[in-house]
């Protein structure tokens, strides 16, 4: 369950930072939004030209995004060769547009202008984001950009085949090529970004102002807290029956349930003005921008929970992306600040709402009708406890709310080793399997359920994984802040009212866009620096009911 829309800077990296189906659209800033006055007279021309230069880049990026979406949803198997060439050419064109020397000249004119300080905070943020993008892109060789985009399409295609065959040796050569390309880029970006390591340069693409050292500290605290929660669950007085979750639910029923869930969270896929759609893919994801945000899921007849929670997860991403300020559309600030924040919103909807007893008190009767009574002999509390079962597992996207972050910590630690070149690609399966045994106590039987379960490395998305667990941490803090202002939000959910909660999220999270870097935004929302305690407190409270401790 992934999100593939990035911050404005990341959006414009479609040709190079082609990290996983970036369905991107951005555009030219409407100059009418600028406050009238002296700034208009003296800075209007260079500022307007600068933001107008983004229009061609983002239109091209939009086309690239749709091609990526099609590659995952509709493209026939034979199309991968042509698709790799299309993406390579588009990425080359995008890189040329984004490194146009005129952009550098316009940025310099604005930054050195005597009236620069008269710009608003929003205008300065736009300039900052564009400067960051330009400086980084101008350092990247066009050949590297083109080769990376081409290799992404090839590697993903081979990954799918290798995963089906459960054979890492098929995938290894293409992954080695992709890693080599990404390492070259990381070495270059490390210098321009001023990071301490190549891995930090990649992390910054997805989570600005974050580095491996800080994440290591946060994850150590998170891991220790999660282990304690797991132990409490193991010793709890409640014994959960989850066998009924394997009952067969036909795909057509699951599709109807998906539509009902989308309607509940306000993700419109039905009306003449709908800005969303749901498709089926191997690996669920979200992509789009403002008025065209698409999600995917997958359906397994004997695993209803998989589609239930992928729809809620991806729907959480989608409504975040659809609710940035309309007046910021086509501006750099009119996008997410980071993938960690995006993940906070998806997992908020999926887990804090979607796995709550309050939600199922409302939705369980609907589920009974939609499934024709398949769960008619299952009590509400038994169902809620079943969907919240804590059980170490092999597959990240199927992991429970407590153990999920341990899957991320494993990937983070492996990526650190790989980027530091203390291990090589051939070492990945063995290290992966050992860490799963050490951290989760499970034995990996084959590489499809192990090192090849995720698409991220095939697409070159090294540095992406930490954002998932950071999203959990952000979400805990956001929940705590929300509960201070909306103490009755759970009553509203029981009544089937998601809009009250959504309105709070829109005002306090979504409409902040990319006006602030993540560390600043989380403090503005919650009044605190990033910390794991609210998330752990939430888990302890919730699972004390589930397991009786």
The total count of helices amounts to 21
- The structure class reads mainly alpha
Strand content: under 5%
Low-confidence stretches are 3-39
- The secondary-structure element order is HHHHHHHHHHEEEHHHHHHHHHHH
What does this structure look like?
The protein is an all-alpha fold. The protein has a domain at 8-174. Helices cover 60% and strands 3% of the residues. The protein contains 21 helices and three strands. The protein has helices spanning 8-11, 38-73, 80-98, 101-112, 121-138, 142-165, 168-193, 198-206, 212-235, 251-265, 304-322, 339-353, 357-370, 380-387, 404-419, 428-440, 466-485, 489-494, 499-508, 518-526, 533-547; strands at 276-280, 286-289, 292-297. The protein has a three-stranded mixed β-sheet with strand order 1-3-2, with helices on both faces. α4 (101-112) runs antiparallel to α5 (121-138) and α15 (404-419) crosses α17 (466-485). Mean pLDDT is 91; it is low at 3-39.
